Amino acid sequence: MTEAVKASILEGKTVLGIELGSTRIKAVLIGEDNLPIATGSHDWENSYLDNIWTYSTEEIWKGLRDSYQKLVTDVERQYNVKLSKLAAIGISAMMHGYLVFDHNDQLLVPFRTWRNNITGDAASELTTLFNYQIPQRWSITHLYQAILNEEPHVASIHFQTTLAGYVHWMLTGEKVLGVGEASGMFPIDLATKSFNKKMIEQFDQLVEGEDYNWQLSEILPAVKVAGEDAGRLTEAGAILLDPTGELQAGALLCPPEGDAGTGMVATNSVAQRTGNVSAGTSAFAMVVLEDELSKVYPEIDLVTTPTGSLVAMAHSNNCTSDLNAWLHLFKEYNQVMGIEVDTDTLYHTLFNKALEGDADAGGLLSYGYLSGEHMTHFESGRPLFARSTSSSFTLANFMRTHLYSAVAAMKMGMDILLKEEQVNLDEMHGHGGLFKTEGVGQQIMAAALNTPVAVLDTAGEGGAWGIAILAAYLINNDDGETLAQFLTSSVFGQQAAQTIRPDPRAVAGFEQFMERYQKGLPIERAAVELLS
């Protein structure tokens, strides 16, 4: 097997996927069997500058180069060969946000990420105008809010894109997006698989009094679906990614996608009646719909699969960050007491302890709002833990509370789909940090959604592997296979999945917790108002 992999590397038949997540940039190299053969990663964090969550372009390229070089080192360590030629590349990143450039390709304002809940007025106006849910984090919302704020840079905009689109553009010279990523910029016409022309016209009419020298269609990227050619790695792009000069130009690139689309691919959830839930820094659950929803819901976003099928998304800005902070506190306690416990053991032990707690988490309550939470209408957040004198304050209940809280806001959106819209869903596929401790995150999520939750063997590889698979699909779909067929026949056919069905007692307990969670929201509101 090692010799076969080595030959693929030397012959330039391997495929690279890179995803820029909220806390980590990960690179995955896959072989001809579509399984990972090497990885590299770079940890990073957003900065809060001038009331904006952002990453600098310097951080973006430093992280990309570092993750790629670590992958190259991993290849050399495992196979004793240098990686210099690739068959295909895929770029993915956290969706939405605001990146705008002038006619000299200069960034006009610092990157505004999805995490910024500063576009409430724009989101409300555009939702009413289009009669279509337009979330605060969408790129069009950031653009219109900048217009409402009379920001002078708007007049100089020549091109607007997302983080994935920006990196892809720098590597190829092509201003394109995959349709799934594009659906987080502006609504998609499901018939044409491109931006909705009628809504573009409505937007242009809305802002025509501003007398800008651009129209919306002129500054948006082109839209492509999975399997379409989206350019080649240029000489300049190769040097950007690998300043050593080892990486050769010429690799094909698939359309850049967002972390929602790559999550669908990585969990084999692109067909109707399938869904996946990603739980990490943020949490989002996606269900591929058979029919359109009956009405507009502010809690439900409509995006698409990488092939342009309609997807309902329940997204919450906050998930495991506050939970991680508590676990870091426990780790610090161990260090002060002279107890040596590695991080994996700490997580495994405390996550499993949560399963010993009461079904309703003993009357405890927490809100892990490090940032604002649009699902519950908070523009900013304050992490908060509360209990009454009659609560059962045990370690097991404490941990269960924080696991429940991590997915509670997202559950509110999923309840709309499953309870109000009666959406058909056979199974959810889980991926992300919440599921790393075997079985625990699945049990919590199954209780939250009252739906079986499966985790695939490769789910831990995440979106970087998902975008690598989309790049592999680009160079292997000559026989006309759909993406769903390709995933079933060439990627997931031999993979095992661990499925956990909901425990009725836990389902009932989670519903009790949610009653407490929703009643307690004024406590969180007071914390936001009083704790600066």
From TrEMBL:
Q: Which residues form the Carbohydrate kinase FGGY N-terminal domain?
A: 15-233
Q: Which BP terms does GO give this entry?
A: carbohydrate metabolic process
Show the Pfam families listed in the entry: FGGY_C (PF02782), FGGY_N (PF00370)
> Which top-rank group of organisms is this from?
Bacteria
The record's annotation in InterPro entries points to: ATPase_NBD, FGGY_C, FGGY_Carb_Kinase, FGGY_N
Q: Membrane-crossing residues?
A: none
Alphabetically list the UniProt keywords: Kinase, Transferase
Q: Name one GO molecular function term.
A: kinase activity
- Carbohydrate kinase FGGY C-terminal domain sequence ranges: 276-473
What family name appears in the similarity comment? Belongs to the FGGY kinase family.
Q: What PANTHER family is this protein classified in?
A: SUGAR KINASE (PTHR43095), XYLULOSE KINASE (PTHR43095:SF5)
Q: Which protein, by its recorded name, is this?
A: Sugar (Pentulose or hexulose) kinase
Q: Which organism is it from?
A: Amphibacillus marinus
The record lists the lineage as: Bacteria, Bacillati, Bacillota, Bacilli, Bacillales
